[in-house]
Amino acid sequence: HFAVFFYRLQFDDTLPLSNVDTPKLESYLNKLTKIQTNYGMFYASPSVPYYYVKSYANAFAHEEAHQLTKYIDAPLTSKPRFLVLDYAQDLPDYGGEVLHDANVLGWIHSLENVVVLTTNLQPTPLKVPDLALLNHEYFHWLLLNELDIRSTTLWVEEALADNFGALFEENEARFIDTTLFAKAIANIQEEGFVNPYDPYSAESIAAIALLEQQFGAEAIKRYLHLCQQMDDEKAFAHVFNMSYNSMFDIVKDYLNAS
Q1: 42, 34 in Cβ contact below 8 A?
Q2: Backbone φ, ψ for residue 22 (5° rounding)
Q3: Which of 2, 158, 217, 224 has the fewest CB atoms inside 10 Å of its own CB, making it the most exposed?
Q4: Strand partners, 118
Q5: What long-range pairs does 194-198 form, CB within 8 A, spacing at least 24?
């Protein structure tokens, strides 16, 4: 059990909370109900039931919720802040920049540095936290705060975030084992290649999943860490010996072999 004990030590309660660089947003957060854990701070907006925010905090405090940190080998120097809010009711008082999108689920702005998890489009009554969303946004937070990667190709980062979200929500071993991958493949088979370079596209999600299958999780980790030193496209070519565009050839080969 030494590995588990050592892993817990990494989440020492002495780690400081991550900075909030927007005074108006920090003032807003200070007025909210807070749930402090050894792993991060959760803020409950007035329109979201306390028990629902607590369910997020409990899920994140569980060791399994940090498989993402282990996967990408991210050092931990601070603890994230998570704000759970009702997209329709809380935005007038929200002190940060807002993404005006009827389908938005969550976001993190690099200058504000707070993970926002909305109840938008969640099943009601609110009961189960969206662990795919939690890990998706936590991946973005880790890139910004612990790997210090602030500029990547958007559709690639979002495809990685989506795959990580599904992987740890479903407790699977590989991206290709998730229902997200199965749905992406089914979508491509039905509609073909439509907008592969769009964030959240089925094509990009499938490409990242098959990339992990072909090259392994260790290669994904090497690519992310190399992005600290060079442009992300160059890092990708260095690790995988291909361009971003070539990823889609892996998807086509997979479909042709199916």
Answers
A1: yes
A2: -120, 110
A3: 2
A4: 85
A5: 196/155, 196/248, 197/155, 198/155
